[in-house]
Amino acid sequence: MVAPVVLVIGVIIGYPLVRGVFLSLTDANEANVERNIGVNHLPATYKFTGLDNYRAVLSDGVFWDRLGWTVLWTVACVSLTFLVGLTLANMLNRTLRGRTFYRLALILPWAIPAFISVFTWRMLYNEKSGILNKLLAGGGIDAVPWLNDPTWAKLSVIAVNVWLGVPFMLVALLGGLQSIPGELYEAAEMDGASAWQRFRHITVPGLRAVSSTVILLSTIWTFNMFPVIFLLTRGGPGDATEILVTYAYRLSFLDSPRNFSESAAWGVLILVLLSVVAVVYRRALRKQGEVW
Amino acid sequence: MTRTPPARPARKRNQRSRLASTALHAGLAVAAVLAVFPPLWLLVTSFKPKNDAFSTSLVTHFTFANYTHVLADTEFLTWFKNSVIIVGLTTVLGVFLAATTGYAVSRFRFPGMRPLMWLLLITQMFPVAVLIVPLYNLLASLGLLNQPAGLVITYLTIAVPFCAWMMKGFFDTIPVEIDEAGRVDGLNPFGTFWRLVLPLARPGLAVTGFYTFVTAWAEVAYASAFMTGEENLTLAGGLQTFVNQYTNDWGSMTAAAVIIAVPAALVFAFAQRHLVAGLTAGTTKG
Question: What InterPro entries is this protein classified in (chain B) (predicted)?
């Protein structure tokens, strides 16, 4: 029963991966890959170039620029999403009137496909006539170039990604909170622990298993978050908001001629980076005695 | 919302002061407004005449013009049909593959199991950029570009690994004795899986089904790269044609967006009560 499944996964993931690594070692581009023009079949003419692509990418400032922004983007998004999610989860994990209503409202962004939300935000951010600037104008504040100024654009894409990511965090952390036995809190209260002490010594350790996993997943997802950047700014203005993934996509699908090999090299580098992050993270967890 | 998890009994010694209570409600209310406003504004805008798309007022001239325009004069219905076919196939196949894989990993000890688990998790890290070009070439050589099958295969590569990982967490919570009982009663391994274990893992199936559906319904990068020509686009690709460098048809965009969001929201509403259990089972017991 295992065999077919392993086979299927091997084929649908293994093959493209191996082929991607192979392409990154060649000089393949739009002009020399195997293709059909009308009825004529042109064979591939690209050749093996070893590590040339990697040398070129790593010695080029563009890669390091994009890497710097991608790291900043990931750290900002994940930490903000986690903090907001944790705060809201704690607020929701109490007896209060309208709990169900708040919970439904707060997870609504999750129910809507991301690309729809991103288009909606593009409408809200519209510089001349978007509602955000109209509201600011009502308060006598000048229009903000949300997506047209490098700094504002960076803040804007982060805001949208946090907005999109909070529901997942909220739901996961709420689940985690509800699995912490209430008796622990009662006992702590009897012993006179303050609210902060209870949070610090019961909630935080109790959430460790859930939070370590969601932080890792969310880091990986944010690092590779294609739709938000691509649909909101197309990486612009200039290349201010271009993260590694969107840049690699641009190389093979938007630039002309399409540069398949360099794009693949970027992809492999991204994969290596993420694997290193995951391994280091896992090791750090293990050192803290986490069994994950 | 049909079933909220039981609230912890109110703590009597530590009743909130009125101030704390107000602050709590105020904080949640602000957060709720921030969460709800964009989709709500989208809905409101879709009922405005084209020229009013950016007015700050609520609807002054209520109209369905955007909807009728999108449905009657554009390729929207074709895109919708394409998406439904692709997403439907992906969900059915994806849930089946994820369930069998998850079960295999949960129940059988075999060489290479730990690496397989790791592989499932690591595939989450595969950036679009590594796979997209090889997949593009592969699909091109198989003649699957602009074919629904091409995108279905692609989406399976995204959804199956993570779902299999979540399903393993679910199967781990189902006692092995159930399998053994099935075996004693003369069922083969697949029979045990299909007739006994799978029905018990229904919440897990709901979660993975939901995840697969949402992933495929909302995917942009592959859909934009693999499908060209108006009649082959999926919803994600089609929507981009309303608002891009050349055109700015926000009216059609909003109406189309609302129509696209509704099925997703319905599926979500159906699956959401299992989400907490699903995510925690999948993520903490991985």
Answer: BP-dep_ABC_trans_perm, MetI-like, MetI-like_sf
